[in-house]
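Morning!

This is the sequence you dropped in the shared folder:
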Amino acid sequence: MDYQNPEIAQIYDAANPLGDAEFYLSLAGEEPCRVLDLGCGTGTLCCALAERGHRVTGVDPAAAMLAIAEKKPGAERVEWVEASAQGYRSEQLFDLIFMTGHAFQTLLTDDDMLAALATMRRHLKDDGTVAFETRNPRLDWAGEWSARPPRPLNGGEIVETLEVTGSDGECISIQTSYRFSDKTLTTSSTLRFPSREHVERLIARSGLAVRDVFGDWNSGPFDAERSREIIFVAEISR
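The structure's back. Tokens below.
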């Protein structure tokens, strides 16, 4: 997605309701801790964490997304940083580091995935937790998205349409159109769908160790044939 485009960024919250928020909020717990959100987007989760007393840093490569985040209630309590997950560097260490919204799937090569995991390892406290998710590649995402009818957003003011434009190995390319009454915005993206086993190997190479793997946002067990999500919770390898 071209989230550097301010018009596309403005649509993000309407098109992407936070189905995973309670899961990540529960990982932070009730006691104030230091949290790093890599790929924070428009900052909704960062602000929710800050309002609960956590010290939060939100990192995103898209200035247009951060501009929206900085205007949300509670945004003044968050440190906002324009950077990629691969390139972020700080002297701070964090109790919890996560990537939400399937941001991990925008990393299309092993090198980029390892660089993001290295960022997590580099900035994680000894007893800290890492968490992120990716969609289960065993499901037919290309078929599901191809069959999805146009979706009204903002009470019908915007109509979203998906078109699968390519499928090559682990990657699926999508074109998304947002039709307004007076114009249509179109953006393209490619997502990678690595297997659970492959991601676990990358996690191990980065100096982290898998603690849990869930299949849904209620912390249900991962089922390779049925689960829509692969949710990884990791810690520093001992």
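Headline: The CA atoms of residues 102 and 134 lie 5 Å apart.

More detail when I'm at my desk.
O.
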